[in-house]
Amino acid sequence: MQAQWPEDLKRFGGHLKTNLGGVFSPRREIYIARAPARLDVMAGLSDYAGATVLSTPLREATVVAVQKRRDRRVVIRNLNMNKERVLNCEYRLDDLYEDGHLKPYPLLQRQFAQDANNRWQGHVVGAIAVLQHEGFVQQWQTGLSIAISSTIPQASSAASSAALQVANMLAIKGALALDLDGFQIALACQILENRIMGMPCGITTHVAVALGQSNRTMVLRCQPHELVKMMSLPPGVQWVGIYSGLMSPQRESRYRDLRIASFMGRKMILHHSGASAEVMPMGYLCNTDPAQWEQRLRRQVLTKITGQEFIKRFATHDDPATAINLEKRYQPRAAIEHHLSDHSRSERCAELLDATLQASQQSLLEAGRLMYESHQSYQERCGLGSKETDLLVDLIKAQGPEKGLYGAKTTAWGCGGTVAVLAAKGSEDVLQNLVSRYRHLTHLEPYLFFGSSCGAMEMGVIQTAFD
């Protein structure tokens, strides 16, 4: 069985005793889970608006091992969170409780936010609180020993935090024999991200990481998480990711502003239409009829509005994951137009790139054009572009289909991060040369994502021990 494991998992398993003997006890069961990075191919930014999202798992991954303890401590060894040294940390299980009761989510969020240097621990220890809050565990009786190893570049917008959360949650499921399926794990991880880490993300990333399949593109309709299909690309093409090497400190705030603007626009539509289900079926923005949007709904959504003016007129934007800044000026109309157009582009790409539908060269060219349109919308409507990712997309466009590069776009939260590329197999040298050119022009250190691997649930939980 080990012969079929990915290389990162083989290395991790081989070092359990030599490198992790101080964390894990001998002759006691250790539970290991692996969750891959994922590439947002289309519309990942619009998951909370109910879009159809395309994503695919990558070769890089996070591996987590968990062993039950006989005390009430959580002992964590992070093998590569800090490149200069292995990080060891301890957490008392009782610190999650107050007066014998599990602390509520807002208090836990403040608790993990206090130490900026070790905030990442919330991704790990927070799982314990979520599992109890959501009723999967009645009361924690034992601590945990946890070891983490990852090959996913940090801040690459390739789901490094989601992979850590899913692998950790799946390993804990194994150690405690919990009854959790893939969607439940994804939902628990989204709750962890939203309620404890304070990040207002949708569920797409966690579903892709948990349920993805190697060399397949997941088509997920986020209403709330309907798996439409797993599709293979046409023969001769592949998904490739290029991490720009840039992590913008403004990424989270810009993403948050876009989400708030989107919910503001949704509220305006519902307000002016009397909350009619015909206007927005099931309440999802992306179910808005494009013709109705152009003919009458568009003018009901303001181009710009301050937070203060919005609250004065509409009271609330109905999004529990974000809070409106009274002083900021938001752009609801542009946000909605991005979501509607990217949802449409994503559904069309799912048709064009499904190998079972006999995609042609013309299909690849059209899919590439849609990717470039999506990238432009990131810039103009969302304000999530960066000159670095723009440069990568321009370099790819200059090479074009003649060199095997059909299309490219900024992924996920934008503001740097990773560019998704629809590329011909055999174009690896072209991409390597392109990345070298980018490195020379920017003095940044990019990273190429080649290859794929299976999702966390397909790999499952590995049970082992050492003498």
Helix content: 40-55%
Mean pLDDT over the full residue set: 93
Q: Total domains, how many?
A: 3
CATH architecture of the largest domain: 2-Layer Sandwich
Q: Which regions have little confidence, pLDDT < 50, spanning 5+ residues?
A: none
Strand content: 15-25%
Span between termini: 20 Å
CATH class identity of the largest domain? Alpha Beta
Class by SSE composition: alpha+beta
CATH fold-type name of the largest domain:
Ribosomal Protein S5, domain 2
Can you walk through the features of this model?
With 467 residues, the chain is of the alpha+beta class. Strands 1, 2, 3, 4, 7, 8, 9 and 16 form an 8-stranded mixed β-sheet that branches. Strand 3 and strand 4 form a beta hairpin. Helix 5 packs across helix 6, helix 5 packs across helix 7 and helix 13 runs antiparallel to helix 14. The longest helix is centred in the middle third of the chain and has 23 residues. The radius of gyration is 22 Å and the shape is globular.
